[in-house]
Amino acid sequence: HTSRLIWQSFGPADRRTDDLWVDLNTLHKSQVQIHGILSNTHRQAARIALSFDFPFYGHHLRQIIVATGGFIFMGDITHRMLTATQYIAPLMANFDPSFSKNSTVRYSDNGNLFVVQWDKVRLKDREAEGPFTFQAALHRNGTIVFNYKDIPVPVARINSTEHPVKVGLSDAFMAFLPSVQPSDTKQRTIYEYHRVEIDTTKIANRSAFEFTPLPTCLQHTSCDLCLTSNLTTGCGWCNTLQRCSDGIDRHRQEWLDYNCPEEVRYIFHLHNREMSNLQTGPPNHKGITENTAIIAGVVAALVLLVALTLLAVYYINTHPTVAPPFYLMQRRTNNYWPSMKFRNQGCQSSYAEVELGGHEKEGFIEAEQCC
């Protein structure tokens, strides 16, 4: 699942670099907002509403969370470890906009393009090394651009001990682990299913990266398009949810809860049979007999799969210390998604979300209280 987007890099000598940069200074003051809180604080994040639906890995988002640390959190559920996954990070690092009055976090939204710029921000406890100015641009069609104007220190030299240093994109889905006791609430675990990491040696003054999303299964709104479109591969149609998916997106838990993998196999089989009948013409009596046998075999296989699934669920619920089959399956295939274990990251990268009034918001979801 690596072909979810394509990207290009542009250096100082490329004309495209100048075209991609959005000069907020040339816009009317009414078109540019200076975020008062983010511009005067350290390790904080604030929610911003977009004026358009932004497609991120096929999911249309209307709200984002901008952080002082040079990144945007794109998740639906906020927690203190915003740096772990589900981010758009032109340059995630330990920036402290509160150091100087000249350091600001500015943004603009014209209905087709949202731009956030970390302007003249400095690294915490390394302020003498100079100010960084860079931006992330989110286009209505899903294109994402990272622009860099001033990078006084090579990114490889930025310390990641107290704060993660990342450049790229990431998304994840949330799944539930079985509870130890029936009365306990289910534990949420975040599985990162896709990440793009940029070669930081290419980041310099007047450089840029452009990410273009590829079509996703989620964009298909009918079974026919889902199964026949040449734009996507690996898609399956779940009639119960009326959704097209490859099963690896933010809706994965619901996809499994409604037994969509079995539906997909059955619908895919019927579709292939219909296509075969169209090519071979009306079946003869022998064909009907063979078809009946095939259908009977498929039904028997489905019954067996359902029985095995129920047994597996029962086993997990009665053996809570055993890892879920989904996780074990990914390990066996050497293609599993790493789960986000927040307690292992310490408190260095924790973020607090603030409202415009400056108060910390409630409702964070934390795997473990560590501070």
From TrEMBL:
Question: What subcellular locations does the record give?
Answer: Membrane
* Source taxon at top rank: Eukaryota
Q: Mind telling me which residue stretches traverse the membrane in this protein?
A: 293-316
* Chief localisation class: membrane
Membrane-related topology note: Single-pass type I membrane protein
Please report a single Pfam family linked to this protein: PSI
Q: Which UniProt keywords apply?
A: Glycoprotein, Membrane, Signal, Transmembrane, Transmembrane helix
Assigned GO CC terms: membrane
SUPFAM superfamilies with a match to the protein in the record: Plexin repeat
PSI domain: residues covered: 216-261
Q: Does the keyword Amino-acid biosynthesis apply?
A: no
The similarity comment for this entry is: Belongs to the plexin family.
Q: What is the official name of this protein in its record?
A: PSI domain-containing protein
What is the organism of origin for this protein? Dicentrarchus labrax
Question: What is this organism's lineage?
Answer: Eukaryota, Metazoa, Chordata, Craniata, Vertebrata
